Amino acid sequence: MVYVHKMIILGTEELKQAESVLKKSFPESIKVYGCIFNLNRGKPHNLEVIADQWPDFNVIICKPKVQGTKDREGDFNIFSIYSNSKVCLKTLLDTPGVINKHAFTLLAGVDIRHLEAVQEFADQHGLPWKVQVVMNVLLLQDERQLLFKESYAGLRLTPLSAAHAHLVNSTWKYGGDLNSYNSVLNYITHNPSLCVIEDGGTEPVSWLLVYQHAALGLLYTLPQHRRKGYAKLLVSVMAKTLLERGHPVYCFVEKENDSSYKLFTSLGFQDSADYRAVWFEINK
């Protein structure tokens, strides 16, 4: 454990303790829990995890160790945040060394109830800011609603390979450049993924990946293959596999995305009415 300016950098033992403590505060802690879950299982990462105090922390932030690495996480300087106190969150953000006030930073997953604290922090330092998106967080609560068929005649379900990263990146809402390609490649190489390949085909027609913070994501079906139930099939098979590994099963869905919201809730995922996660940009 290293103490710097009241900012505590968590070491191996603290990260294990943090995982078990954070598990009791879902959904608010799920994104930071997901990052730490993967860190504790040796997944390659460019993250350092800091807390405001230890062991009775109020705030934990997972932030890039090296800024500007050539992937989406480094490029966007993405911070994942769990906080149970607005005041403590603002104090930690104000601590020297936590935020580079000259760099673009994306605070991803700020509890909407603590939005005021990050706005005040930005305003106080004269930093331009905007709310990028507000998300529902959906956690799998009832695995009995997952959909399975007896057979998948005509279909092959298989993990994605590195060769598919270009295809996934080209259809991703946040993709299309080299840095997002590097992120997709990293997800495919180190995290679970699943795709549907139809009989006689060689390329995926539908796929699902898992982010560094352990959430399901990048769910996509090529337009000409929609309405065949592939998305529900992928989510169900992936969720079952992850549950068997003790892996959290959850996703973020943008507030306006009704079709994704309906898909996940029809499979037993639930959101918590009073919790929303905000992606908050500082600097341009």
Structural key phrases:
284 residues; 4-stranded antiparallel β-sheet; 10-stranded mixed β-sheet; 9 helices; globular; alpha+beta
Can you describe this structure?
The chain is of the alpha+beta class and 284 residues long. It has 9 helices and 14 strands. Strands 1, 2, 3, 4, 5, 6, 7, 12, 13 and 14 form a 10-stranded mixed β-sheet that branches. It has a 4-stranded antiparallel β-sheet with strand order 8-9-10-11, covered by helices on one side. Helix 4 (86-94) runs parallel beside helix 5 (115-124). It is globular and about 60 Å long. The model has no long low-confidence stretch (mean pLDDT 94).
Approximate shape: globular
Low-confidence stretches: none
Structural class: alpha+beta
Q: Tell me about the biggest sheet?
A: 10 strands, mixed
N→C terminal distance: 34 Å
How much strand? 25-35%
Give helix and strand order, one letter per element, not per position. EEHHEEHEHEHEEHHEEEHEHEE
By DSSP, the count of extended strands is 14
User: Please, what is the average pLDDT?
Assistant: 94
